[in-house]
Design goal:
Residues 23-291 form the NADP-dependent oxidoreductase domain. Belongs to the aldo/keto reductase family. This is NADP-dependent oxidoreductase domain-containing protein. The active site is at residue 62. The protein has one domain: NADP-dependent oxidoreductase domain (TIM Barrel, Alpha-Beta Barrel). It has helices at residues 35-39, 41-51, 65-75, 96-107, 150-163, 176-183, 204-213, 225-229, 232-241, 245-255, 267-272, 281-288, 311-314; strands spanning 11-13, 19-21, 25-26, 55-57, 83-88, 114-117, 122-124, 143-145, 169-172, 192-196, 216-220, 259-260, 305-306, 309-310. The protein is built from 13 helices and 14 strands. The model has no long low-confidence stretch (mean pLDDT 96). By secondary structure, the protein is α/β, with parallel strands linked by helices. Helix 3 crosses helix 4 and helix 9 crosses helix 10 (245-255). Bound molecules: NADP nicotinamide-adenine-dinucleotide phosphate (NAP). Residues 26-28, 57, 118, 172-173, 194, 220-223, 225, 244, 246, 261-266, 269, 272-273, 297 line the site of NADP nicotinamide-adenine-dinucleotide phosphate.
C-alpha cells in the first residue's frame, strides 16, 4: 500500500510560513529542445495537474514558463492551489528586476511562489547578451564575471521579494561554501536550496547544514536517471517492496525531508511518481550506502567547469 498517493501528497513548511507540496513536476524540456518541444510541456504539465500535481518547477532558461502558465489556466485549477517555482538564469545577474518581469510576462502570472537564483555565479554569453543561449553551448563561450557577486544578486532578489512579485526566494546549486558566503550579507535566509540529489550524490553534509539554517532542500535529477534505476541494490529493494525503482528512490528523498521534482512527459509515469511507499530504516540506510559523490546532470565539461566556474569555486 502506498503511503503517499496523488490525493495525499504531504506539504513542507518553508521559512516564510508557506507550504510547498513535497512532489513537484520538473518542467525542463531537455537539452536541445526546440520551441515545439517546449510548447508541448503545456500538454504534459496539463496531464500532471489532472493527475494531482500541485507544484510545477520551471525556469527562465528552460523556456517553458509560458507552457506552465497556460497549463494552469487551462486546467481550471485556481492559481493559489498550484505552487510555481521559476529561476533567475545565471547570465541575468545585474538584470534581476527586468528578468523577473520577463518571467511573469512569459507565464502570464501575477506572481511566482518561489524564485530561485539558478546558479551562484554570474556569467556572460559573449555575443548573445541577455538572450536565450544556444542549447548546445560551447564551453569556451561562457565567461564567469566577478560582478555582480552572489551577494549583490541576492540583495536584488530580496528587493524582488519586497515587491510581492514572488512569495519566497531561494537558491539553486549552492554548496555549504557558497551558502556561507551568501549568509554573510543576506537579510533574508533562502527558503530553498535546489540541488542535484540522488542515491549516487546523497550530499548528507549539505542536507544537515541546510536543515540547521531552516533551508528546505529540493532534489533535482531526483530519479538519478537509468543509471540509478538500474543499480542492483535499487532494483532488489524495489522488488522486495513491490514498487518500481523510481518510486523507491523518490520515497528515499521524502524520508530524508527533501522535496522532489521528477520530470515525466508520460501520464502513467507521472502517476507512478505520486504513489510512494513507506521505507523502513534499514532500506533507507541501504540506499544511503550507494553514495559515491557522482554528478549525473551538471558535471564538469572538458574545461573542468560548469557554466564558467570550477568545482572549487562551487564548493562541490
Ligand atoms: N536547478 C537546476 O539546476 C536543475 C537542474 C536539472 C533539473 N532541474 C529540475 O529538476 C527536474 C527533474 O530533473 P531531471 O529531468 O534532470 O531528472 P529526473 O526527473 O530525475 O529524470 C527525468 C527522466 O526520468 C524519466 N522518468 C521519470 N519518471 C520515471 C519513471 N517513473 N520511470 C522511468 N523513467 C522515469 C523521464 O522520462 P519520461 O519523461 O519519458 O517519463 C526523464 O527521462 C527538471 O525538469 C527541472 O525542473 C533543476
Amino acid at each position: 500500500m502506498p503511503v503517499i498517493t496523488s490525493s495525499t501528497v504531504p506539504f513542507i513548511k518553508l521559512n516564510t510560513g508557506a507550504s510547498i507540496p513535497v512532489i513537484g513536476l520538473g518542467c525542463f524540456a531537455g537539452n536541445g529542445a526546440n520551441q515545439e518541444r517546449r510548447d508541448r510541456v503545456k500538454v504534459w504539465a496539463g496531464t500532471a495537474l489532472k493527475s494531482g500535481y500541485r507544484h510545477l518547477d520551471t525556469a527562465w532558461i528552460y523556456g517553458t514558463e509560458h507552457s506552465v502558465g497556460t497549463a494552469i489556466r487551462e486546467s481550471g485549477i485556481p492559481r493559489k492551489e498550484v505552487f510555481v517555482t521559476t529561476k533567475l538564469p545565471w547570465h541575468h545577474p545585474g538584470y534581476v528586476f527586468e528578468s523577473i518581469d520577463e518571467s511573469l510576462r512569459e507565464a502570464g502570472l501575477d506572481y511566482f511562489d518561489l524564485y530561485l537564483m539558478h546558479f551562484p555565479q554570474a556569467t556572460e554569453y559573449p555575443g548573445q547578451g541577455r538572450g536565450r543561449p544556444a542549447d548546445a553551448e560551447d564551453p569556451h563561450s561562457i565567461r564567469a564575471l566577478e560582478h555582480p557577486t552572489l551577494n549583490e544578486t541576492w540583495a536584488d532578489m530580496e528587493r524582488v521579494l519586497e515587491s510581492g512579485k514572488v512569495k519566497a526566494i531561494g537558491v539553486s546549486n549552492f554548496s555549504i561554501k557558497t551558502l556561507e558566503e551568501l549568509l554573510k550579507t543576506a537579510k533574508v535566509v533562502p527558503a530553498v536550496n535546489q540541488v542535484e540529489l540522488h542515491p549516487y550524490l546523497a550530499q548528507p553534509k549539505l542536507l544537515a547544514y541546510c536543515k540547521s539554517k531552516g533551508i528546505v532542500v529540493t532534489a533535482y535529477t531526483p530519479t538519478g536517471y537509468a543509471t540509478v534505476r538500474s543499480d542492483p541494490t535499487i532494483t532488489t529493494l524495489a522488488n522486495n517492496l513491490g514498487v518500481t525503482p523510481t518510486q523507491l528512490v523518490l520515497a528515499w528523498h521524502i524520508a530524508r525531508g527533501c522535496i522532489v521534482t521528477p520530470k515525466s512527459e508520460d501520464e502513467g509515469r507521472q502517476k507512478e511518481n505520486l504513489e510512494l511507499p513507506h521505507l523502513d530504516e534499514s532500506t533507507i540506510r541501504a540506499i544511503d550506502a550507494l553514495d559515491r559523490n557522482e554528478r549525473l546532470c551538471n558535471y564538469p565539461n572538458e574545461l573542468g567547469m560548469v557554466y564558467g566556474w570550477t568545482m572549487e569555486q562551487f564548493g562541490w
